[in-house]
Amino acid sequence: MGLVSSKLGNLGVVTTTLDEAVNWARTGAMWPLLFGLACCAIEMMSTQASHYDMSRFGMELNRASPRQSDLIIIAGRVSRKMAPVIRQLYDQMAAPKWVIAMGDCASCSGVYNNYALVQGVDEVIPVDVYVAGCPPRPEQLIHGILTLHEKIRSDRIAEWAK
Amino acid sequence: MSIPTALDPAAAIQSAMPDAVLAVEEFRGETTIIVTPDQINEVARYFRDTPGLVYNFLSDISAVDYYEPYGGYGDRPGRFAVCYHLLSMLYRRRLRLKVYLPEENPVVDSVIEVWPGADWFERETWDLMGIEFRGHPDKRRLMMPDDWEGHPLRRDYPLGYETVMFSFNADEKMKYKPFAKD
Fold first, then answer.
1. What is the pLDDT of residues A90-111, one digit of tens each?
2. How far does CA B158 lie from the centroid of its chain?
3. Chain A, 89-148: which have a CB under 8 Å from a chain B CB?
4. Looking at the domain assignment, is residue B149 inside a domain?
5. Does ipTM exceed 0.95?
6. Which of A36, A91, A99, B61 has most Cβ atoms within 10 angstroms of its Cβ?
């Protein structure tokens, strides 16, 4: 952390900017909403499990309620009937909130160019990070999460008002 | 107690209701009986209630669209066909009933009073093929959203949703693609 400096060696005092501190807190414990739709949910589950642990990155557990989560990982195909449900869940999440579109079907509806699926979940909710893959391997999903962390670290308080 | 002997379904229906049966087909052990659409309820009750036939389980109701873009349905009497797949749990054998429906107004009586499990099958057939079932108490769409227009599984419904994006039409398509801006 570049802007962090400790005073007088061993006093145990660290100074930093408010931006850094707030963004560190946000990325440190970002709990996702328990929301797996289709095959990408299996890869999300295996990323959450012990071999590729997502708890290392702060996502200790998935909350079932949108009011208690910061992040929604859209893992899987979004059908036309599911789109208003996703919109309602996204609206119920409290700010600050982020969205990861995991997999090809959430990014651009993948191989399914038909009447039943929403062509990319960004028709319904604004997306921060798109993770490509069908399904993306756990390492790819973790790369997407780390990209989201970098994006959050570059947020500035002066832009919150917008 | 003894089970009544099993009857041959095609012979039985042809002797009991000869004017309802249009044809009988058999292919690799599967029997299909083609009936007229206005007698489907009597035929269904006959197959369910007669000892020796007892087709008491409706496995599925499906529909076929024989639309050809250059016209004609071969030698078939109508554009749509509704297939009722029956199973007799007592004699462990299956049967298919088929009715042909015209293109302009595909309506057939509902068999929900004979087999109550026909409820969602008929809702699905209405939703995806546009075949109306007279007497069904709850005509709603099952798979598509309630305000959807069109019947997706008909053969003249467009197959894809949007044109494929290449690099030469990417800018043009991105202008019209809907994005949520929160």
1. 999 998 899 999 999 999 888 9
2. 21
3. 113-117, 119, 122-126
4. yes
5. no
6. A99
